[in-house]
Specification:
The chain is an all-alpha fold and about 170 residues long. The chain contains eight helices and no strands. Helix 2 runs antiparallel to helix 3, helix 6 crosses helix 8 and helix 7 crosses helix 8. The longest helix is centred in the C-terminal third of the chain and has 22 residues. About 70% of the residues lie in helices and about 0% in strands. It has two domains: about 100 residues, Rna Polymerase Sigma Factor, Chain: A (Orthogonal Bundle), CATH 1.10.1740.10; about 60 residues, Orthogonal Bundle (Arc Repressor Mutant, subunit A), CATH 1.10.10.
Length: about 170
Amino acid sequence: MHLKVLMLAALDGDARAYRTLLTELSGHLRAYFARKVKTAADAEDLVQETLTAMHRRLHTYDVNQPFTAWVYAIARYKLIDNFRRNRLRQTIPLEDAGALFADETEDSANAKRDVEQLLNTLPQNKRELVRLTKIEGLSTAETAAKLGLSESAVKVGVHRALKTLAQQFSEKT
């Protein structure tokens, strides 16, 4: 959480916070890469590549998302690039293999949170229509029966809700 606070301050133009962030992050990244590569020089090169890539991609960071997950995703890609560049095939114990892949439960939780944030921008009645038809997979007839509406009212309501969400999404991008 401390690193995210520094990142947010840096994004607001605080140069001191950015320097502190880079210094603290360097230590974390150095430890991460030291476990993955053979030499300290390789680890240091990867730290610098990761920090440079992070700096170039600052504009892509979503302040509503975890900061360390974003940085370590960049670090993983830099590590993979390094292995490819050096034509290395690293073998690791099977029980450690999970660290190489994104955590599906985390991705699922992030996706669910994102969907909930979007749905919460809709009025309750429209939110319920989208939830039942698009998330829970009920048919138009089942949704209409459950909510005491006509099928055409459900179709129109879902269409308008999705149109509203699409407009909100296009305004943000």
